[in-house]
């Protein structure tokens, strides 16, 4: 399998990106990695960290998008590491593309360069997040601020297929993010989406409200991008705040430190369960070929997990299944 990676996307590029790619190569014998970006800088960073640059193919390009660039920059600056990688994917020179760079630019590039799955109105940002117990997908996590009911139905289909095939969740339960669980709750968008989801071939369990999302209410939370991004950022912030408070409590005095030692294993497990590095980032579901948004602050371990998930994404036929399901729905209408 050939994976294209933007070597200059994210806060810790290129060093942590290169390290993570090297670790992924150690894990997977059938993996090839193409790094996009300034070749001299990639080679220098690799050598300075004891990594042989010959392990990678390098696609030289001089430009780099920053987090401050607008979303359309990926179309205007065609020699940037992100634009080059996306075009390589579109041209069939790789099986998937990963970047920890500018989210807006990546969504735009996935839509306009890689194109959409036939029948899909808009690709969606689709992070997998921890819950108690297990994990869930939030779709859309911020790509589409304004949505139509039909888009939410497509998000449900895409999220359900991904969770079943890639994350191995049997018959994933799909919930609609809303202000209450009753069928009549919400605004016109939620009312119409609810009706459509009841008739969609997914395991729809109804509305879910904010207090239910961290628990085992469903496996796919469907939302417009505006609401979804608020949920995502609040969720990540709350998890970090709580873990910080727990750490402060156990550092407070000697007795607390001793008690922390007694449950160190459980604390380490909890930290791992709420650590977003485990999931690496989020697929851009709806793109015609696999595009994966890696966390912007990605370290090597994040990159390694993201590559593993992307390989599963490629191997499990998610895109074909989404296209098939959407086509069947359109045929019935």
Detailed description of the structure:
It is a single chain. With 333 residues, this protein is an alpha/beta fold. Helix content is 46%, strand content 16%. The protein has twelve helices and twelve strands. A seven-stranded mixed beta sheet has the order 3-2-1-4-12-11-5, sandwiched between helices. A five-stranded mixed beta sheet has the order 6-7-10-8-9, with helices on both faces. Helix 1 packs across helix 11 and helix 6 runs antiparallel to helix 12. The longest helix has 26 residues. The chain is globular, with a radius of gyration of 20 Å. The chain starts with a strand and ends with a helix. The relative contact order is 0.16. The mean pLDDT is 93.
Task: Tell me which oligomeric state these chains represent.
Answer: single chain
Low-confidence stretches are none
- Please identify the structural class as seen in this structure: alpha/beta
Straight-line N-to-C gap:
38 Å
Q: Quick one: overall form? A: globular
Q: How would you characterize the largest beta sheet?
A: 7 strands, mixed
Number of strands: 12
Q: What is the helical fraction, as a range of percent?
A: 40-55%
| Average residue pLDDT | 93
Strand content: 15-25%
Number of helices: 12
**Biggest sheet: strands side by side, in what order?**
3-2-1-4-12-11-5
Q: Over the alpha carbons, how many angstroms does the gyration radius reach? A: 20 Å
Give the SSE string: EHEHEHHEHEEEHEHEEHHHEEHH
